[in-house]
Amino acid sequence: xxxxxxxxxxxxxxxxxxxxxxxxxxxxxxxxxxxxxxxxxxxxxxxxxxxxxxxxxxxxxxxxxxxxxxxxxxxxxxxxxxxxxxxxxxxxxxxxxxxxxxxxxxxxxxxxxxxxxxxxxxxxxxxxxxxxxxxxxxxxxxxxxxxxxxxxxxxxxxxxxxxxxxxxxxxxxxxxxxxxxxxxxxxxxxxxxxxxxxxxxxxxxxxxxxxxxxxxxxxxxxxxxxxxxxxxxxxxxxxxxxxxxxxxxxxxxxxxxxxxxxxxxxxxxxxxxxxxxxxxxxxxxxxxxxxxxxxxxxxxxxxxxxxxxxxxxxxxxxxxxxxxxxxxxxxxxxxxxxxxxxxxxxxxxxxxxxxxxx
Length: 358
Ligand SMILES: Cc1ncc(C[n+]2csc(CCOP(=O)(O)OP(=O)(O)O)c2C)c(N)n1
Ligand SMILES: [Mg+2]
Prior knowledge:
By secondary structure, the protein is of the alpha/beta class.
């Protein structure tokens, strides 16, 4: 006997195309105009923050930085879909998610200026600290989602991983565990086409990254990650379904800038490729849509830009006046255990040498 025991497929969703035209059949009826304006404002704020941080880094006023330009729709669209009690687990590029979830901007700058205090995320934001080892945030997210289920909090956990991160064992173990235990996890794959200099085409032979979920027996969808409406709706739906189990959402987007400030992308990718993605810019298409609906105009644009500049400059000033306490580096290493003698010695040295004043 021979019979087919499994068939799989992955849907792709785009609501707003690169010209700002929407597919009326897919346009959600209950999506308020004001929500799309909010998406636009947060995406512009995220890009303005990116520009400012790059400039600070080049002046020696910020540490190594991973820019998000190009990925605003994936980050803001998903953040605005979260409910107040939901939690998110970032990797290292999700500054737009933090912003849209209300992280005070001076805290973002504290992190970018190298202070541990920038990793202390206020309760209401619902975010976990930046995670640099690629993919390692995913098992954390699975554990956090498992805890939500055990404690019956009703919260969903939204995690972020890059295209490169989906090749890590941590990713597979997470989605496998999430599938078995039907965890309230929404695993967003922020596919920005590059893992430093490794292109998506060399990352895996799989046609989509979303389809990895199929092997784990869980829902998946691929969306246009430069379309904030498609991202928002897909994440909202996955959150609504999270009580029944996890979803993997692959957001197809593009890293328009460098991997980090330590990288020169002109060494490994062509200007033509970047230009082809610039034409799909999430901010441009959303502005076109809003203008076509008379929800936006030049005056609003100018006043928003001035507001953003004021807000960001004020946050930089506040962060640069911050007087750190060297003890803060040691305070969050353990939750309940006494710190080790070695760390205790380092702490004493830091306090004695007035570490931050050097
Ligand atoms: C375990 C581990 N291996 C390697 C690195 C070095 N590294 C930092 S980012 C990165 C690429 C990540 O690519 P991707 O997952 O696509 O995320 P993106 O940077 O594109 O957002 C690598 C290899 C690391 N931080 N951790
Ligand atoms: Mg990537």
